[in-house]
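#lab-general

N.A. 3:47 PM
ok so I finally got the sequence cleaned up, no stray characters, all 224 residues accounted for. can someone with queue access submit it? mine expired

B.Y. 3:52 PM
send it over

N.A. 3:53 PM
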Amino acid sequence: MTPEKPLSVVETGADTDRMDQGAGADVERPSRAEAEDAVRTLIKWAGDNPEREGLQDTPSRVVRAYEEFFEGYSASPREILERTFEEVEGYDEIVLLKDIRFESHCEHHMAPIIGRAHVAYLPHRRVVGISKLARLIKVYAKRLQIQEKMTAQIANTIDEILQPKGTAVVIEAAHQCMTTRGVHKPGVTMVTSRMLGAFRDDGATRREFLAMVGNPASGNAVFV
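B.Y. 4:20 PM
back already:
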């Protein structure tokens, strides 16, 4: 497996990937100083003094953390998957990468979403390096998200770019907006799935995939 490279920058404007429309590429970003001032305002709103010793460097730390949390806005899913391999000796069975851990943030409360993804496809003459599937998940996770949308984005991108015979994505995640606020219900896992092509049309293929990932719909799960 090749070392992970930094996420590449998306060109803004008319050439933006169709799958990235609405991802914020055309949003005018404030300056770092403006972002740090916004953090100071939130600290004051919470009831504390941003000038006291323990909080003086917090605005810059938060902005640096946001650069990491949301680096997916500066990456192109198409570029990640565009390099493929055709010398596969006719392999046409399921290619599965499972238990891919990710961290994301809820777009409603900006609270963490911690989970794992299982991604599979049935190749049609070509395959992609397995690290690229993990990087694709990272791109979409490192944005403000809801789990349903993220699941669809990953599956649709694989289907559009690789054009396989089928694509399947299952995501299991815990949402801190549910466990640390609101209803305060820890221990609940939300499960979402997106099946395309053979995984949607062929029940045996779908069951084979679900068996391979260990039937994620069991246990304390909400299946969507």
